[in-house]
Amino acid sequence: MAQNSFNQYCRQEADTTALAQMLAGSLSHLFQADQGTHLNISLEGDLGAGKTTFARHLIQALGYEGRVKSPTYTLCEPYPIQINSSNPPAIANITAHHFDLYRMRDPLEWQEAGFAEHFDEPGFCLVEWPEKAEGTLPAFDIEIHLIAGDDESARSISFKAKSSQGIVVIKKMQTQ
Fold first, then answer.
1. Of 2-11, 89-98, 122-131, which has the strongest mean pLDDT?
2. What are phi and psi of 51, to 5 degrees?
3. Distance between CA 28 and CA 129 in Å, rounded?
4. What is the widest separation between alpha-carbon atoms in the chain?
């Protein structure tokens, strides 16, 4: 298995949830090691492939207890998250910014809305439909591709690291 990629077939939503929890565990280690860390993660796939569902499971697995909603109309939903560690004791305060660019008509809309500043804050930006921004987004650390299966809950999910931080996250997932 390559050190910068990870693939899994999920037969049901419980498998997708477990995979999101695995990514959350890997991200938690990274944020606990450096609370100032920021990652950019793309969520790519056709309509109905499960991008928002995966995002919801990931954000909740990191400890967010409120409702995680689709940012289809707002373009961005921020989720403050406190990641606690018992060994060694540590708390990382991060923000997950969940973007859905599906309804964008112009690649610069997200910048004009003032969202560019979120790509530097501690935490991560999770971007659905990044191709709608046509190259105006910062580079991604991890690309996640979802492909719907024949069954409604089945999907193939692949992760690809695009930076050194992304490689750390993927390697940690491979050892879980």
1. 122-131
2. -60, -50
3. 25
4. 47
